[in-house]
Design brief:
The protein has 732 residues and is α/β, with parallel strands linked by helices. It folds into four domains: 211 residues, 3-Layer(aba) Sandwich (Rossmann fold); 184 residues, 3-Layer(aba) Sandwich (Rossmann fold), CATH 3.40.50; 67 residues, Orthogonal Bundle (Arc Repressor Mutant, subunit A); 179 residues, no CATH class. Helices cover 41% and strands 17% of the residues. Strands 3-4-2-5-6-1-7 form a seven-stranded parallel sheet, sandwiched between helices. A six-stranded parallel sheet has the order 8-13-12-9-11-10, with helices on both faces. The longest helix is centred in the first third of the chain and has 18 residues.
C-alpha cells in the first residue's frame, strides 16, 4: 500500500493497524473518500455496494482528522439500529484501542456507568441512535455546547433508511439544532449502498445540497437469479377445492423448496409481512423436526423480543452450524451477520431499492456470486378470474423490479414531505432544550432559510401554534414565551416521546358487531370504498378514527381493488417497466417454466383486454383507469376525481372509479374536463378524505395542516395532471 497516496495521508497509528491486519490495498471507495473527508471542511456522501468498505472509508480519514487535533475531537456516528451500533462498536473498538481513542455506544441497552464516563469526557467516537440523541437534547439542553464542543464529524450510516421518513426529518433537525448551539457548521458524512439520485441525497444531508459525492463502482459479485412460480389451488373465497391435497398449497410447496435448497448454508428469506415470517419459520422448523435434523431456521422481525432477534443474529454469525433467517427488513440493513450464501424473496419486493439492499447481503466472499431466489404465487385461472388475477401482477411486478435492479436503477430519495408530525415533536423538544422559546425564535430555529422545515410558511407555523395551544400542548406566558402546556409537559417527560415514528397501529375490521381481524392501513380511506380482507370483498361503511375501527358490510359484485396492507409504495418507473414486459414477447431468462407461464398468461390477458389501446376498462359498476403510474400519482388522480364528487380509489392497476349510473363515455368526459382545468386547491381535493392520520403526532394537527402533510408525502398532483393532459389533450 506504500504506493497509495490515500494510505500515506492516514495517521501513522492507523497505517500500523492496517499493516498488522494484513491489508494489501485500500478499496476503491476508500481511495476516493479519504482525500475528501480528511480535511474536515465539507459534507461527503459515500455510496458503494454492501461490503465495499464504506465504514472504513469514513472512519479512517475521520479518525486521522480527529487525532491531528489537540486535544482530540469527537465523531458522532448515527445509526438507525441499535444492533448496527453494537456491530460497529466491535469493529471500531479494536482499531481505536490501539489509537487510544475511546468508543462510546449509547442506546437504551447501554448501562448508565458507561454513559456517565462519556459525559465526563466527551471525546472519541459516540455511536448513537436518533432517539438517544433526541433524549440528550431534551434532557441536557444546557450542557449541549459543552458536550459537543469538539465535534468534528457527523457520520450517518444507512443514509437511505432515513431519507423521506419522519425519523430522517428528526435527524436533520437534531444535527441542525446542535450546529446552532455550536454556531458553526459540522461536516456530515452519509453512507449508503442504495441512493438513486445523488443530488436529492445531498439535499437531504444538508438543505444546500453541496456535499461531495463518492459514487464508487460496485465491482461487486455477479448475480445468479431464479424466480419460481407456484399456482395457488385455493380460490379467492378461501374455500379449498374438493380433492385438492394439502401439499398442493403454494406456501407449503415454497416451504418444501426452501428446505431443500437452503439446508446446510447461511441464507436470508424475506417474506413481505411479519405474519408470513411466522408462517415460513414454522413450516421450515417443522421440516427440520420431520427430518430429525437440528433446527437451521430462525425468525427475525420487529415484533420479536430483542433476545429472540439476538439469538437469530448469533446463529447467523457463528461458523459451526448453518443458519437461515426468515426476516422482514430488520435484516435488510448493514448488521454484521457474516457471509450469506443466498437471499430468497417471497412475493414482489417492497421496492427496487429494498431488493438491491437485500441482495447485497449475498455474494460477499471473493469469487462468489450473489444468489437471489424469487418465489411468486398466483391464483389459478378460471372463467371467473378478475383482471388483476389474469394479469399475474405479482409475477410481473417481481420481474420488473429485478430487471430494474439489474440495470442499477432504484427509486430516487423522497425529499418533498412536509413532515409536520415531526415538526410538532421538534418544537416540543426545542422548548425543553432551551427552557422556552418565543414564537419567532422557534420559527427561525426550525423553519428558517437553512433549517429542515424551511418550506413551512409563517402562516402555517402560526396555525400550528394556535392549534397546539387549543389542545393544551403549549401555553404562552405573559412575556410571549412558549412553554409546554399540561399535556405537552406530560408527553415530553415520557420515554416514548424521543421516537419520531409511531409503532404500527392496526385498524380492527368489524361487521355487524363482529371483529373480523386487524389490518395495517397505509392509504386514504373513504366510506363507500371496497377492501379485500380474509379473501372476501367488503364495503367500508364507517371509519372510527379514534377507536381505530373500520365498519364494513359484505359487498356484492364487481372486481374489488387490492388493498395496500403496509407494503411498499410503487414508483411509476416500476409500473412502466411492467407495461413494457406485457408488451414484449421475449422470454425472461431468470423465470422458471411456471413463472414464465404466468408472465405469458399476463401478456395474453393484457392483449385480450386491449390494454395497449384502452385507458378505461368497464367492469360493471366500476371503471378501471389504467394509468401505469405510481401510487402517489394514482392517489392524486383519485383526489382530483373526488373533487368532482366521483368516488375513485387508487389500486395496483391504476384508479378504480365508481360509475354510479354513468356511462363509460360520461366518465371519459369527466376525465377530459379535469384535464382542461387547473387542479383544485388541496383542501378541496381532500375535503371528503378520512383516515389521513399516518404519523405519530398527526392527531395534533389542524384539519388543513393534516391535509397538507399527508398530500406532501403521499400524493403527486403534478404527475397526475401531466398524465391527464397527455392522455386527454395530447399535450406533455
Amino acid at each position: 500500500m506504500s504506493t497509495s497516496a490515500a494510505f500515506l495521508q492516514l495517521h501513522h497509528g492507523i497505517q500500523k493497524f492496517l499493516w498488522a491486519e494484513g491489508w494489501e490495498e485500500l478499496r476503491d471507495v476508500q481511495e476516493l473518500a479519504i482525500p475528501l473527508i480528511l480535511p474536515g471542511h465539507q459534507d461527503v456522501i459515500v455510496a458503494a455496494s454492501t461490503a465495499a468498505g464504506k465504514t472504513e472509508a469514513a472512519f479512517l480519514p475521520a479518525l486521522t482528522h480527529l487525532l491531528n487535533q489537540d486535544p482530540p475531537g469527537l465523531i458522532v456516528y448515527i445509526s438507525p439500529l441499535k444492533a448496527l451500533i453494537n456491530d460497529q462498536f466491535g469493529r471500531l473498538d479494536r482499531l481505536c484501542e490501539d489509537l487510544e481513542v475511546p468508543v462510546w455506544p449509547w442506546h437504551g441497552d447501554v448501562g448508565s456507568s458507561s454513559k456517565a464516563r462519556f459525559l465526563r469526557g466527551p471525546s472519541g467516537v459516540l455511536l448513537i441512535t436518533p432517539e438517544s440523541l433526541e433524549a440528550m437534547l431534551c434532557n441536557r439542553g444546557t450542557s449541549i455546547a459543552g458536550l459537543f464542543h469538539r465535534l468534528t464529524f457527523f457520520v450517518i450510516d444507512e443514509l437511505h433508511a432515513f431519507i423521506g421518513s419522519e425519523r430522517g426529518k428528526q435527524l436533520q433537525s437534531l444535527m441542525h439544532r446542535i450546529e446552532r448551539v455550536l454556531a458553526r457548521r459540522v461536516p456530515r458524512i452519509g453512507l449508503s449502498a442504495t441512493l438513486g439520485d445523488m443530488a436529492l441525497a445531498a439535499q437531504f444531508l444538508r438543505t444546500d445540497g453541496k456535499a461531495a459525492v463518492v459514487d464508487a463502482p460496485s465491482g461487486g459479485a455477479s448475480w445468479k437469479i431464479l424466480v419460481k412460480g407456484f399456482e395457488e389451488k385455493i380460490p379467492a373465497d378461501g374455500v379449498p377445492k374438493k380433492n385438492a391435497p394439502e401439499s398442493e398449497r403454494a406456501p407449503l410447496a415454497i416451504g418444501a423448496h426452501l428446505f431443500k435448497v437452503l439446508r446446510g448454508s447461511n441464507n436470508l428469506v424475506f417474506p413481505n409481512s411479519r405474519r408470513e415470517v411466522e408462517r415460513y419459520t414454522h413450516l421450515l422448523n417443522q421440516a427440520c423436526e420431520e427430518a430429525k435434523l437440528p433446527n437451521e431456521f430462525w425468525p427475525h422481525h420487529g415484533s420479536l423480543s430483542k433476545e429472540i432477534r439476538y439469538e437469530t443474529e448469533a446463529a447467523l454469525k457463528q461458523k459451526e452450524h448453518p443458519a437461515t433467517a426468515i426476516c422482514t427488513n430488520t435484516l435488510e440493513l448493514g448488521i454484521d451477520i457474516g457471509a450469506v450464501r443466498s437471499v430468497a424473496q417471497i412475493g414482489a419486493p417492497p421496492s427496487v431499492a429494498s431488493l438491491r439492499q437485500r441482495l447485497g447481503r449475498s455474494g460477499r466472499r471473493k469469487g462468489e456470486s450473489a444468489i437471489l431466489r424469487g418465489y411468486v404465487i398466483e391464483d389459478e385461472l378460471d372463467d371467473a378470474s378478475s383482471l388483476d388475477t389474469s394479469l399475474r401482477l405479482d409475477t410481473v411486478q417481481t420481474t420488473a423490479a429485478i430487471s430494474l435492479a439489474l440495470e442499477n436503477w432504484f427509486e430516487p430519495p423522497a425529499t418533498h414531505g412536509a413532515h409536520l408530525s415531526t415538526l410538532v415533536q421538534q418544537l416540543l423538544s426545542a422548548i425543553a432544550q432551551y427552557g422556552g422559546l418565543h414564537a419567532s425564535q422557534a420559527y427561525g430555529l426550525l423553519c428558517g432559510a437553512d433549517a429542515p422545515f424551511s418550506e413551512v410558511s409563517k402562516d402555517a407555523f402560526a396555525e400550528l401554534l394556535r392549534h397546539l395551544g387549543q389542545s393544551e400542548i403549549l401555553i404562552q406566558d405573559s412575556s410571549g414565551l412558549l412553554l409546554h402546556g399540561r399535556l405537552g409537559d406530560k408527553f415530553v417527560n415520557h420515554y416514548s416521546f424521543y421516537a419520531a415514528f409511531s409503532t404500527d397501529e392496526e385498524f380492527r375490521i368489524v361487521t355487524a358487531g363482529k371483529t373480523l381481524g386487524t389490518l395495517p392501513v397505509s392509504q386514504m380511506l373513504t366510506p363507500g370504498q371496497r377492501i379485500l380482507f380474509g379473501g372476501r370483498t367488503w364495503l367500508v361503511e364507517e371509519i372510527d378514527e379514534p377507536h381505530k375501527t373500520i365498519h364494513v358490510a359484505a359487498a356484492k359484485g364487481g372486481a374489488p381493488p387490492l388493498f395496500n396492507g403496509g407494503g411498499g409504495r410503487v414508483h411509476t418507473r416500476v409500473r412502466q417497466r411492467m407495461r413494457e414486459l406485457y408488451r414484449s414477447t421475449d422470454p425472461v431468462p431468470f423465470l422458471d417454466p411456471t413463472a414464465q407461464q404466468f408472465l405469458d398468461q399476463g401478456r395474453s390477458a393484457y392483449h385480450q383486454y386491449q390494454l395497449d389501446e384502452r385507458v378505461l376498462v368497464d367492469q360493471g359498476g366500476h371503471a378501471l383507469l389504467m394509468t401505469w403510474l405510481g401510487d402517489a400519482a394514482n392517489e392524486g388522480l383519485a383526489c382530483l376525481l373526488a373533487s368532482k364528487r366521483i368516488q375513485a380509489y387508487s389500486n395496483r392497476l391504476g384508479v378504480e372509479i365508481t360509475k354510479a349510473g354513468k356511462s363509460l363515455q360520461e366518465v371519459e368526459d369527466h376525465l377530459a374536463d379535469l384535464a382542461s382545468e387547473p387542479a383544485a386547491p388541496l383542501d378541496e381535493l381532500l375535503a371528503h378524505a378520512e383516515n389521513l392520520t399516518r404519523e405519530k403526532w398527526d392527531w395534533l394537527l389542524s384539519p388543513s395542516l393534516l391535509r397538507l402533510t399527508y398530500a406532501s408525502s403521499n400524493i403527486d398532483i403534478d404527475e397526475a395532471m401531466e398524465w391527464l393532459r397527455h392522455t386527454y389533450q395530447g399535450t406533455q
